[in-house]
# Entry
Amino acid sequence: MPMNNREHTAELLFAGPIADEYNILKLICPPAAEISRRVGEFVGAWSPSYSYSRLKLLEIGCGTGITTTHLAACGDILDIVSVDNAPAMLSQARQNLARELESGRLSLIEKDALSYLQEMPAASVDVVASAYTLHNFLNGYRRRVLEEILRVLKPGGLFVNGDRYAMDDAAEQLRNTQEEVKSYFRVFLEMNRPDLLEQWVVHLFSDESEEHIMRLKPALDAMVEIGFHDVACHFRDGSNALVSAGKAGP
Ligand SMILES: C[S@@+](CC[C@H](N)C(=O)[O-])C[C@H]1O[C@@H](n2cnc3c(N)ncnc32)[C@H](O)[C@@H]1O
# Structure
């Protein structure tokens, strides 16, 4: 397939042991839990500049539901739809989010994020939230997802993303990645799980590849270029960051 086509395709990166044992993330990336918490907190603290009764939130890449739990906890005025394209992740989400699903305020949808967004009407959601998903996307695909997020947000709506944003300084990013690899070896060899070590190292190579890597400054610049307002990074811990942006108000 020519590179410029591949750049715009969705991939299925979460299958097999990496998906089945995704809860290992808390050991190999301790800041992720904090970022997920902050995504929920940010949405909870946000209130739209327009009047509303209930708010509609779209989550992109719910995975096993770690961030979804924080979003659902930020108040009963939110109706949440979470989209993910990995059956193995969604089956865990269904278990982990049983209470939220029962309440009727949450639905989980198995679909590729871009296809789902493209089918949504313009200006139909108040908030789009995501965590640790966009960095997995190929660059061209990510750009199209961001354009669609802006289209589906209501004027005055919010986009919040807690994710892996690579350092702009290549040497700093290399040091950071080397430390991550060392921690993978520590964790997985102690658990005697060379199979998981292999999977996560391979996954890290994907994250760091030129066709995927999401560096902070170019990512923020691209969002401004696409038309988001108030693009800002609020928190950073190594390559873990909380970014938000809005759609111009009504
Ligand atoms: C690293 S996990 C993060 C899960 C969760 N948001 C969290 O905070 O733990 C990324 C998730 O995004 C999903 N994903 C990746 N590419 C996708 C795509 N193109 N469409 C829908 N979901 C996608 C994966 O299946 C996976 O469940």
User: Anything to note?
Assistant: The domain at 3-246 is CATH 3.40.50.150 (Rossmann fold).
